[in-house]
Each structure stands twice: as structure tokens, then as C-alpha cells.
Amino acid sequence: MVDALSRRLVPDELWELVEPLIPEVRERPQGGGRAPADARMVFTATVYVLTSGCAWPWLPPSFGVTVPTAHRWFVRWTEEGLWARIHHAVLDELGGQGLIDWPRAVVDAAHVRAKKRGPMTGPSPVDRGKPGSKLHVLSDATGISAGNTADGEAMIPLVNAIPPIRSRRGPRRRKPAKLHGDKAYNSRERRRWSRDKGIRPRLARKDIESKERLGRHRWVIERSMAWFTGYRRLTLRYERRADTFKAFHALAAALVCFKRLQNTK
Asked: With 90 as the cut, is the pLDDT of residue 9 above it?
């Protein structure tokens, strides 16, 4: 049963994408030491923590890796930028098959309550000032892709963070043709910035565009947010460190994109 669970969490097709990206284990200068843990077991255990939302000490021993080892490798892989590379690799697979809808992208944000205070946390303006963080998401038209920070401030960094993604034909792409967002993202400066980047802004303007009209395109970002909440580790921020909190989100984004890839086969 455990083997079946492991294969369901990390199927062979996903591991084929992940394995070449795993950093090599550095040898001890003095030599000796224990043999390194199995990388696939560690990765599967990390996916289990993300999916189930369990605390690290409650990681089942049946995954074949101890709790200290799994957590130590997770932190090391986070510091070496593994999760963003996995997400980029899956996006390349989607782009190479023409499954990324470049004509438009959508931005939105959602608040996540924090269990502990730490970097990138702040009082939530919508949750009685309780500490939390904000999840800022940018997706394509199909939905792929500190707590009191204004939504609009994250728009430009989100667009700039789009990696160059492989296309089925032609050069790699890293920007959509149109960008949709609600009224929180609208400003004269952001519209001008978008046009300078060759992106047509479709940002809702107060007393001009109605929710119903622009909602025809923005609903996909709400669905993407729902996909993220399917990973129980993301519904409440347990990590004090900001980089490990972001790491779980990058891994969740990679898994969301991989499921999209599987559904097309």
C-alpha cells in the first residue's frame, strides 16, 4: 500500500523530470560517513508533507527516510533553488506541447494566516489584524501557473518573474499578450509599464468596467487558488522561514502544472 501511495504522489513521469535536477550530494572532505538517502524517497516524503499538511515530526516512517533527514534535505534543496527549477521544467513541457495560453494572463492574491510570526508576515487588514502572508499568483488563461502588502505592488514583480518558457514553435516566451486583474491592480503607472512591455493591460477601473464583464476571464485565477488550497500545507503558514514557505508554494505550482500535463495525455 505504501508503494502504491508513493507512486501516486510521485509517478514515474514526474520523477523523470525531477531526477536530473536533484543537486549532487557533496562528499565530506574527510571522507567516510553514511551513504546518502534515496533522493526519490526524500522527494516523495516532501510531497506527502505538502499534500497532507502533516507536521514534519509526524512523517510516516514507511517512506523509508527519517524525519531529520527528510527535513534537512528539504532545507538544503530549498537553499539550492530546486523547487523553482522543477516548476520551470514542467512549464517547459507544457509550453513545448502548446498547452500554455499566451494571449492572456491573470493576476490575483489571497491571504494565508500564519501560525507563527516571521519574515514576510504582517497584520492582515481583512482578518482582524492577525499575522499572515499573502499569496500572489499569476496564471495563464488556462489557470496554469507580507500579509498587508497591497495587491498592486506585486504585479510588476510577478510579470518580471515569468521565466523564459519553451514554445512549440519559435523562441522561448516570457510575457502574455494581455494581463487581466481586478481594481486592486489598476493604476496609471502600471498601465503605462504594461504597455511599455508590449502587454495590453486589462485591469478593472472603478465605475467603468463591471465585475461581470471582466470576470469572464478572471475566474481561472480563482480556480488556480482553489487548486493551491488542495495542498493542505498551504492553508495555514507553519514555516517561520520565508524561503521554506515559498518553497512549498513553488512545489505546489509544479505539481499543479504536472497534473495539467498528465490530463492532456
From this structure: yes
Q: 66 falls in which pLDDT band (50, 70, 90)?
A: very high
The angle subtended at Cα 6 by Cα 98 and Cα 72, nearest 5°, is: 95
Query: Other C-beta atoms within 10 Å of 104: how many?
Result: 19
**How many residues are listed for the chain in this entry?**
265
Q: What residues have CB less than 8 Å from 145, skipping those under 6 apart?
A: 91, 105, 137, 138, 139, 224, 253, 257
Q: Would you say residue 191 has pLDDT above 90?
A: yes
Grid cell 510516516 is found at 60
* Lowest mean per-residue pLDDT among 25-34, 121-130, 138-147: 121-130
- Identify the helix (H) or strand (E) that includes residue 105: strand 104-113
* Residue reference for cell 565530506: 28
Sign of the C-alpha dihedral computed for residues 6, 9, 13 and 15 taken in this order: negative
DSSP 2-53: HHHHHHHHS-HHHHHHHGGGSPPPPPPTT---PPPPPHHHHHHHHHHHHHH-
Cα(216)–Cα(214) distance, integer angstroms: 5
> Rounded to an integer, what distance in angstroms lies between the CA atom of residue 167 and that of residue 25?
33
Question: pLDDT digit string (tens) for 22-50?
Answer: 998 777 666 555 667 899 999 999 999 99
